[in-house]
Amino acid sequence: MFKRLFSCITALGLVIGLVPPVQAAETILTLTSNGEIQTFDRAALEALGTETVETTTIWTEGLQTFVGVSLARLVQEIGVKEGKLLATAINDYTVEIPLSDAVEAGPILALKLNGAEMSVRDKGPLWVIYPYDANADYRTEVIYSRSIWQLDRIEVVQ
Amino acid sequence: MASTHVKRAKSGQTFLVLAGLVVVMAIAFLTWNVRNEIEELSSASSDNVQWSLSQSEVEFQEFSGRIRVGADLAGIRRRFDIFYSRINTVSKAQVFEELREDDEFRTTLQNIQNWLDTTVPYIDASDVELTNQIPRLAALVQDIRPDVRTLSNSGLKIFAQNADRQRADVATTLTELALALAALISALGLAVLYLFRLNKKLRRQERSQRQTATRMNTVINTSLDGVIISDDRGHIVEFSPAAEEIFGQRASDVIGHELGAIIVPDHMRAGHDAGMERMRNGGEKRVVGKGRVQLEAKRADGSIFPVELAVQSAVTEDGGIFIAFLRDITQQKADEAELVDARDKAIAGEQSRSEFLATMSHEIRTPLNGLLGNLSLLRDTNLNGKQDTYIRNMETSGRLLLSHVSDVLDITRYDSGKVSANLEPMNVSDLLQDIIDSQISMASNQETTLDWGWDGPAQHWITSDSDRLQHVLLNLIGNAVKFTKRGRVSVTVTWHNDEITFEIEDTGAGIPDDLLDRIFDDFVTGNSAYDREVGGTGLGLSIAKRFVKVLDGEIMVASELGLGSTFRVVVPAKAAPSATKQENLIERRAVIAPLRILVVEDNEINRFVVREMLQADGHEVEEAHDGQQGVDIAAVEKFDLILMDISMPVLDGRSATRQIRQGNGPSSKARIVALTANAMPSEREDFIAQGMNDVLTKPLRKSDLQMVLGHKEHEPLRGATALVDHAHTLETLEVVGAENYPKLLARYSAEVEHFIAWLQSGTRLDRNDIAAEAHKISGNAAIFGATGFREVLVTIEQSAKSGEDAKVMSAIATLPDIWKRRGVSETLCMRLSPCGFDGSFIEPFGV
Question: Quick one: closest CA in B to A119, which residue?
């Protein structure tokens, strides 16, 4: 009976596009550095401290509010100084993000869009967002290509 | 023309600037355009749109590939979500906005979206349900596959179109840019061309300006006048070499200095500075542009000298300038002063000469008059024959001297402008006849015929100055006769258009050409041979010329040596009404009651002569030695007559007369008669105006004196046929000489005696014979001053011609008596010419 109810709730959650809180422990990012693998769930990432970026994007309509972990903070967390990041999405799309992009007021790994967590259908769970409006340098093809969504893996390479 | 040039150049520049601006703006605009295009190309606004689209098909394949029985449900769901996300992105992302505008794309996209909406419930269903619906899903996937394919392809097509359009835009913009650049280059080329031409023109102008400047410099440097140019503050800009020389300054030292300090004398500085200040303020220009002005200037050494200068102003780009041309006129001034001085001296010399001549003439005349007067008195005393001859000779010489002195005095008077014409009616025929008469015997002596006549209608009465005319004609006719031997002298008179012309033609020796030119000059005489023969002062013709001039006429001469000469005198003369001939000759010597007479005369001899003449007639004479004495005596004594000399010491005759007339003394109403040596008609009027009743001329003649004593008004000497013409006789004497005169007279006497005897012979005489003989005798009578005698002869002649026998007979009857008396007087006449002094031969005729 209990199990049935759970299933119903889960189904309902899926239907309404919400990630059920029970999946909080689910790994949403796998970080590989020097053969060392770190995994982060949503909480772990949020624990690193979040930043808010308000900007428009070429993929959305109107001003969007993104909340996520800054790349700089993440890089600091893993303690790498050199090399580059290979970011890969759920569909195995991979882009290269140089470490030099990991700066203050730079890109973030967005966890929430307009206060809500992002499903895969909404380019979740993670979306690399640069503050496009704040800096013209971020409104380039290269930066747009680095703005990978449905991100789930990052590998640090030399 | 220069301003149009400048204007054209300016408009050209403006055009160029504007054209350049337009081109630059166009280029800027195009460049901006190109930059935009490039930015758009490089801009990331599109992400990798095309890739995203094709990725949607890939993701669809990934999804569709998993739709099979027994497949991993999570994988299916994940793949669906990814595809869903992709389509979501394509539907919403602004980078696909453009694509969405395409109808086909939009329809396709809508189909897919609808499909997704249809499919979602299957995916989100439970695992069991999903598993059950797999076949259904597979069918659905097959349904939508073509649309997904179309979507990805249509994107490709549209992007290709867009890319084409963008390329075309870029190409167009680049073409426009190229055109704009071409235009800019053309404009630049034009500008270069324009500048090149401008430069060429400027160089040409510069060259011509340089030439002009060179010319100007040459002009300034070679000008004999100093040239100084200053700016409007008075600072010297140019200082020519001539100016350097004039002012003793060097151009290099003075250029840039203040003009006033350099050349203006210290005492004129203030005025100069004020003038400059005034002109700077646009005030009146007193020297500038006023032509030549004479001022003083200062040399380097401070000396002052006169300059003549002309200043002109001009306006240049650097402001106003003054150009002065200056000339040192020190020498000119000195020359002028010298000339003025010389002229003053000459005038003074001329004046003193005239004064000297006038004084001398007067001084000579006074004693000469005394001399002649005394001779006249001496003649009345008992003399033997020898003494008689001596006196006659003395008198002849005296008269001649008097005539010379009169000539000189005439000239002096004329030259000092004191001579004027006394125009009155006169009978020109009578005048000529008298002159001819006076010259006829001289002519016959030379075996020369002398005649006169009118050419054209006769105009006897004209208005002229008979004294002057007589003087002139007598001189010319006398000369002609004098210089013509065995020839002919004829005088022709013409009156036409209020002008009378006398032509005196002779067949004499003629006048040499060199003499002809100056024959009317003073003191010109013919050659010495003739001079000796005929004598003369050489003043006759020059006086004649002067008198003709006084009459407003002209005198001319033409002559051919050896053939003769012709003198022509043309004088304006209006016709005058004929006047009755004044029968002056009838004046007779009335018995005059003894009068009390006051003689006011400073010259003792003259006083003596007058007194003797008056006392001889039984008058009582009182004397005064000057005007003042005369006034004093007249104030206390009563006189019937006062004879008043004019020029006297202490008080002259005019003033004395005035005082006597105003004095209310016993003699204030007495007749006062002027006694003068120079009786000009104008003076005569003046004397009358001063209160005198009459005028007597010196030398005093008894007849004149008697006339004045016996009558209230004395007729002027001229025209009195009873009186022998002084001039005729003198001329005769002068011409024939004192030695010949008696011989001539003797011959004439014989002729007359013969004529009278013939008339008295009692034979029946033919009237024509009488007329002819009377004419012959009368012609010569005038020469000897026997004018009265001649009158009787003329009467006989005219009466005989007109057949008035009674008149002829009565005239003939008086003739012997006249001649007898005349015979006596004739003798005297020879000694004391002119005849008729005592008028004794006149009296019988007059009675």
Answer: B81
Q: Which residue of B has its CA nearest to A15?
A: B124
Closest chain B residue by Cα to residue A93: B55
Give the model's pLDDT for residue B503. 93
Strand order in the sheet with B596-600: B620-624, B596-600, B641-645, B671-676, B694-697
- Token readout for B375 is 């001779």
Residue B81 contacts A where some CB pair is shorter than 8 Å: yes
The answer to whether residue A8 neighbours chain B at the CB level (below 8 Å) is no
Q: Residue B6: its pLDDT value, please?
A: 55
What's the token pair of residue A42? 């949503």
pLDDT of residue B755: 81
Hey, what's the torsion of the CAs at B238, B239, B241, B243, to 10 degrees? 140
Residue A64, classified by CB atoms within 10 Å of its CB into exposed (0-12), middle (13-18) or buried (19+), is middle
Distance from the Cα of A59 to chain B's closest Cα (Å) equals: 4
Q: pLDDT value at position A17?
A: 44
Helix (H) or strand (E) holding B675: strand B671-676
Residue of chain B nearest A124, judged by CA positions: B85
Does residue B229 contact residue B238 with C-beta atoms inside 8 Å?
Answer: yes
The SS3 of residue B312 is strand
CA dihedral B117, B120, B125, B130 (to 10 degrees): 120
- Beta strands in B410-510, from DSSP E residues, in sequence order: 424-427, 449-454, 461-464, 488-496, 499-506
Backbone angles phi, psi at B64, to 5 degrees: -65, -30
Instruction: Quote the pLDDT of residue B446.
Output: 84
Tens of pLDDT along B235-278?
898 888 888 888 888 888 888 888 888 888 888 888 888 888 88
Q: What is the pLDDT of residue B367?
A: 83
At residue B737, the pLDDT reads 59
With a cut of 50, which residues of chain B have pLDDT below it?
A: 1-2, 44-45, 528-535, 581-590, 712-726, 822-847
Binary contact (A58, B47; C-beta < 8 A): yes
Is CATH 3.40.250.10 the right assignment for the domain spanning A25-157?
no
pLDDT of residue B376: 81
Mark yes or no for CB contact B47/A122 under 8 Å: no
User: Do A60 and B92 lie within an 8 Å CB cutoff?
Assistant: yes
Chain B residues with CB-CB distance to A14 below 8 A: 124
Interface of B with A in 43-62 (CB under 8 A): 43-48, 55, 59, 62
Residue B43's closest chain A neighbor by CA?
Answer: A140
Question: Who among A15, A61, A144 is closest to B124 (CB)?
Answer: A15
pTM for the predicted model, two decimal places? 0.36
Q: Is A86's Cβ below 8 Å from some Cβ in B?
A: no
Q: Rounded to an integer, what distance in angstroms lies between the CA atom of residue B524 and that of residue B501?
A: 25
Helix intervals (H) in B293-427: 330-379, 385-415
Strands (E), B148-282: 226-231, 236-239
Residue whose entry in the numeric block shows the structure tokens 């160029």: B16
pLDDT digits (tens, 9 = 90+) for A77-136: 888 888 889 999 988 889 999 999 989 889 999 999 999 999 888 888 899 999 999 988
Structure tokens at B52: 């995203």
Give chain A as a DSSP string. -HHHHHHHHHHHHHHTTPPPGGGTT-EEEEEEETTEEEEEEHHHHHHT--EEEEE--TTSSS-EEEEEEEHHHHHHHHT--SSEEEEEETT--EEEEEGGG--TTS-EEEEEETTEEPPGGGT-SEEEE--TTT-GGGSBHHHHHH--EEEEEEEEE-
Q: Report pLDDT for B385.
A: 82
How distant is the Cα of A83 from the closest Cα of chain B, in angstroms? 25
A145 closest CA partner among A128, A157, A125: A128
> Which residues 18-77 of A are in CB contact (within 8 Å) with B?
57-61
Could you say which residues from 402 to 421 on chain B have a Cβ atom under 8 Å away from some Cβ of chain A? none
